[in-house]
Structures are given as C-alpha cells and as structure tokens.
Amino acid sequence: MENKEEKVVPLGEPLEYQGEKITELRMWRPKGKLLRKHKPAEGDGSIGLILGIVAGMNGLPADALDDLDGADVMEVVAEFSPFLEKRTGARQSA
C-alpha cells in the first residue's frame, strides 16, 4: 500500500553504514506499533527518539544514524515532527 504522506529527505552529506551509501531517508506518519518499538537510550531525548524511528522506517538500526551530519539531523527532525502532531481538520489562518 502506497503511503501518500511519505516524505523523502535527501541528505546533504551522504552517510555510509556497513558499506552501504545512504543518500536519502524516507519517513511517513507512524502508527503506535512502530512508536512502541523505538525507545531512545537514556539521554537521547526527542531527537534520539525521532532518529530511531526514522532509522527503523528505513530498515536500519538506530545507531546507523549516529554519524549523520548535524544539518541533516535537524532537517530530518523538522520534516518528521509534523507527523506527530494531532490532526484537527482546522486550517491555519494567515
């Protein structure tokens, strides 16, 4: 099933993990099952939780994103965060 809300974040600095070059990360609105699976290590906070979830969405272990460039980390967090907001159907006013 295709996820219409999927986002693809191209990485400014490609990441290498176990000999594989990663140039983009895919993400979508997660379900509770996926959120339960990813528990951040102590001290990781919200960023660690988000990186762990996004790593899992891409078939990677959480530590695969440990060497992700800082600017790419912030872009991944910014792009993923709206998926965790509750939908109300209301539109933002200008």
Task: Give an overview of the whole structure.
By secondary structure, the chain is α+β, with helices and mostly antiparallel strands. Helix content is 32%, strand content 20%. The chain has helices at 32-37, 45-57, 70-80, and strands spanning 7-17, 20-27. A two-stranded antiparallel sheet has the order 1-2. A hairpin with a 2-residue loop joins strand 1 (7-17) and strand 2 (20-27). Helix 2 (45-57) packs across helix 3. The chain starts with 6 loop residues before the first strand and ends in a 14-residue tail after the last helix.
List the helices and strands and how they pair.
Layout: E1 7-17, E2 20-27, H1 32-37, H2 45-57, H3 70-80
Antiparallel strand pairs: 1-2
Helix pairs in contact: 2-3
- The chain-level mean pLDDT equals 87
Gross morphology: globular
The largest sheet has its strands arranged as: 1-2
Q: Would you identify the regions where 5 or more consecutive residues have pLDDT less than 50?
A: none
What is the number of E strands? Answer: 2
Strand content: 15-25%
> Helical proportion?
25-40%
Structural class: alpha+beta
**Rg over CA atoms:** 14 Å
How far is it from the N-terminal to the C-terminal residue, by CA?
A: 35 Å
**SSE pattern, N- to C-terminal:** EEHHH
Main sheet, how many strands, which sense, barrel? Answer: 2 strands, antiparallel
Number of helices: 3
Keyword list:
single chain; 94 residues; alpha+beta; two-stranded antiparallel sheet; 32% helix; globular
Structure summary:
This protein has 94 residues and is of the alpha+beta class. It is 32% helix and 20% strand.
